[in-house]
Amino acid sequence: MGNFRINASAAPSFILTGFPGMEATEPWLFLPLLLFYSISIVGNTLILLIVKLEQSLHQPMYYFLSLLSVNDLGVSFSTLPTVLAALCFHARAITFNACLTQMFFIHLFSWTESGILLAMSFDRYVAICNPLRYATVLTSARIVAMGLGTVLRSFVLILVFPLLLQRLPFCHSQNILSHAYCLHVDMIKLACTDVSLNSHYGLSIVLLTFGLDFVLILLSYVLILRSVLAIAAREERVKTLNTCVSHISAVLIFYVPMVSVSIVHRFGAGLPHSVHILMSLLYLFVPPMLNPVIYSIKTKEIHRRLLKMLFRVKF
């Protein structure tokens, strides 16, 4: 095998994957994919604009929502070119460096989103369980520190991925990926050497970040639920829980597709490859597209401002 080994300096290229056996119908995916991207980009941009323009929304909850929207825009812009090119125009070749860059940003935004959702759960916990201390706990300086800490954590952890990948030799000049975009776990499968270091590091940071974040989010809602159940009036309990609906929805639409993709990836060897592609696209499209929709519908202040902006409705 030594004669076929190619390292990163020899510029191996990668081939993105579409839907096998459906090449003739793939161009028809252009309009729905463009629609999904448009909803994500326009929706998250509107959220940012509303929070910026509406003085009453200059609060911790909406600052974190703005971070989430910026992150979702990052996901859309980092994947838009290759997904549309691969699935709609059959332009599936991508260079090693381009694939490495896309992989870095996709994972960076995924890890950052998990941290933002954790910060938002902390915001809801303080607002409901310690409302009198809300302004003193979530100061502007602390919000900035939490935001920068989330991004820095993701950056440091994910920076190791390209460094580990650059040392790997690849067996072919053209390496076929199993998705329409580049992922670390996908790329290391194509290396013709031991990748246990990459695998162990990837698994470790998944457990230490996604796993820990989810446990802390779950714990915050256990404490929130205990506090809500102590409220005597039923109307007040419902009103309080309603302030958490948008965030709970955002948590579910982020973690459920991610866990589903992981399960299909690990245990779905017998499934058609098109199922793997479809699940990976759902993981990519669902959170950035649905987050602004959910917050626009379920968050009263955002909903009112959006109607006022689009239709000149007065309240």
Features:
11 helices, mainly alpha, Rhopdopsin 7-helix transmembrane proteins, three-stranded mixed sheet, 315 residues
Fraction of residues in helix: over 70%
Radius of gyration: 21 Å
Spatial order of strands in the largest sheet:
2-1-3
Architecture (CATH level 2) name: Up-down Bundle
- Major β-sheet, in short? 3 strands, mixed
CATH class bucket:
Mainly Alpha
CATH topology: Rhopdopsin 7-helix transmembrane proteins
Spatial shape: globular
Describe the overall structure.
The protein has helices at residues 30-53, 60-88, 96-129, 134-137, 140-166, 184-188, 196-229, 234-242, 245-267, 273-298, 300-311, and strands at residues 13-15, 93-95, 174-176. The chain has 315 residues and is mainly α. The chain has a single domain (2-311), classed as Rhopdopsin 7-helix transmembrane proteins (Up-down Bundle). The chain has a three-stranded mixed sheet. The model is unreliable at 1-9 (pLDDT under 50).
Spell out the blueprint of helices and strands.
Elements (H helix, E strand, L loop, with lengths): L12 E3 L14 H24 L6 H29 L4 E3 H34 L4 H4 L2 H27 L7 E3 L7 H5 L7 H34 L4 H9 L2 H23 L5 H26 L1 H12 L4
Parallel strand pairs: 1-3
Antiparallel strand pairs: 1-2
Helix pairs in contact: 1-2, 1-10, 1-11, 2-3, 2-10, 3-5, 3-7, 3-9, 5-7, 9-10, 10-11
Keywords: Cell membrane, G-protein coupled receptor, Membrane, Olfaction, Receptor, Sensory transduction, Transducer, Transmembrane, Transmembrane helix
Protein name: Olfactory receptor
Main location: membrane
